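Below is one such record:
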Amino acid sequence: MGTVAIAQNGFQETQQGASTYTPGVEWSQLSDAEIMLRVREGDDSGFSILIEKYRKQIVHFMFRMSRNQAVAEELAQEVFLRVYRSRQTYRAEAKFSTWLYRIATNLGVNHARDTKYERTAQNVYLDQPDPETGTSPDVADSTPSVEQELVREERMNAIRKHVMALPERQRSAVLMHKYQEMDYKEIGEVLKLSESATKSLLFRAYQTLRENLKDFA
């Protein structure tokens, strides 16, 4: 049995016997699903490519769910470990990213459920500036006054509270839609919903948020 270790920039595996490797593969010409099918057949070098492509996205997604960088890193590693351990059962019936986010969503929901009594407040800010771009989706004024900053902080706290109070599916859908820029079809595939059901799910979620946050409009 092999021992799997996922480092920040790639994938390593040590095992008894040599792993299968396909030299001369034009990875850039392959889809994610085709790469994962090669991984299923034993070409672990393809898995490093998938990690390199999706690791940052998954860390950011888990960070939005946990609001803790260390936890997000650990959860992201667990996501890729689960993907690798499930490689023999992979079927290219949907996009690889759909399968990946389904695993990530389930793990994130379970983590939130398991730790909800340990957290005095869950820090998921829909208004907080993106750590890479520094932009905020809802706050346009980059130089607020003291009064504006206090109002903004209060609004962020309220958003945090009400997002985390959403039902699990609605919360996951909002995070995927808001931050991962996934469309209705992609979110529906992750949550195993039709596109129309996904639209309804997000409509209800945003309607609830608008109602609960009407004092901050």
